[in-house]
Amino acid sequence: MFGWFKGTASQRVLRIIVMLTVVVYLAFFLIGYNHPYAEDPDFIEPRLTSVLIFFALLVVVLAVAVTAWAMLSDFRKRASLAKADRRLPTSRLVAIIVALIIAMMLVSYWVGSTAAITVNGKDYADTTKLRLADMFVFTSLALMAIAAVAAAVSTIRSQFRKKR
Q1: What pTM does this model have?
Q2: What distance in Å separates the CA atoms of residue 6 and residue 8, rounded to the nearest whole number?
Q3: Are 28 and 46 in contact (CB under 8 A)?
Q4: What pLDDT was estimated at residue 56?
């Protein structure tokens, strides 16, 4: 009956999150989506905006909590395994990766735009928030590009190894 619920725990959690997301978004778009905004009838204010925002924040908070838990548990395991793994300096690699990500975020904050943007017909000129938004966008795009290149290199290397 619940064949979709088979698999590893991470697969089940992913399926549940995807199903909840589909349900929340369908409800958002199908229940009172064209509700006019009380202060300005030219804009729409969907009735379930607060539900969607709450769901998004809940998913983000849970993701951050799970990530923090995974990092802490991995750090504890790594501390006990560091003595056994002398060939690879894992703690040094982790420190270098964290430092590079922080440097990438600082550089992307520094190059972020401070030009005002127009949101809903009003100028928005808070330079700190504009730079923070640019920082997160630029850093995520850079990390996605790095991940795509790493996946491509890994795939190409594995294909060459199979041919040998």
Answers
A1: 0.56
A2: 7
A3: yes
A4: 94
Element (H, E) at 122: strand 122-124
The answer to whether residue 85 scores a pLDDT higher than 60 is: no
HSE-up (13 A, CA, CB side) for residue 134: 18
pLDDT tens across 1-24, in order?
Answer: 456 567 787 788 888 899 999 999
Category of 40 on φ-ψ map: left (φ > 0), alpha (ψ -120 to 50) or beta: beta
Burial class for 41, CB neighbours closer than 10 Å (0-12, 13-18, 19+): exposed
Q: Please, which residues bridge with residue 87 across strands? A: none
Pick from 60, 24, 58: nearest CA to 136: 60
Q: How far apart are the first and last CA of the chain?
A: 46
Instruction: Decide: 118 and 152 in contact? Cβ < 8 Å.
Output: no
Average pLDDT over residues 85-107: 84
Spatial distance between the Cα atoms of 148 and 102, rounded to a whole number of angstroms = 20
